[in-house]
Amino acid sequence: MTIYERLLDVQDVDTTIEQVEHQRSVLPLRAEHAEVARRHGELSTRRGEIAAERDALRRSQQRLEDEVEQLESKRAREEKAMNSGAVTNPRELQGLQAEVESLARRQRELEDEELEIMEALEPLDADVARLDGELASLATELERLEVAVADADAALAAQLEELRSERSSRSGSLPADVLADYEKLRAQLGGIAIARLADGTCGGCHLRLSAVEIDRIRHLPLDERVTCEECGRLLVR
Ligand SMILES: [Zn+2]
What's the pTM? Predict the structure, then answer.
């Protein structure tokens, strides 16, 4: 095996490493996880808004209930006074009667308001319950995806580790200047520094070399450094 054939083996494993690194960085599961997390965040905000609206209504409902309770006990006191026989003055009795009626009216008004609030609360409670259900299933989905992302990432990391050790065993015995040349060309030529020359065509740029160049190369020793006249990549014959 010539130095350049061994270098081509290094190139092969480097190309695979690049592909696996790319796979790892664009993991579709990660995008899926991000999408589910975004949706979870959106619904969670929505739930917060509806719950705040519902809680404000519940506070109003509580205030009305307290007020109704106060009115009721006041009315009970007045009715008791009215029926106790202690008040005999007809005008005073009439006054009490009017007061009791007015309290009852006010109570009915408040109770109507309370009913309206309860009706408004119903769909809000239903929305919060529905969102809670959706959020719970999204949370489960997120957990599942987190595990799946971690598993896929770990599998690719293990694969990379293996490839890197393969790479160092393939490149270990190559001369430092050949490797430096290779790395420099890789940086300049989109990661591919060396290709096979087959049927007079460069495997890197897929262009055909001139007949003169092919003839010149044919007469060179196999370990001689040869580059493609079109793309500048090292050629393995
Ligand atoms: Zn080329």
Answer: 0.71
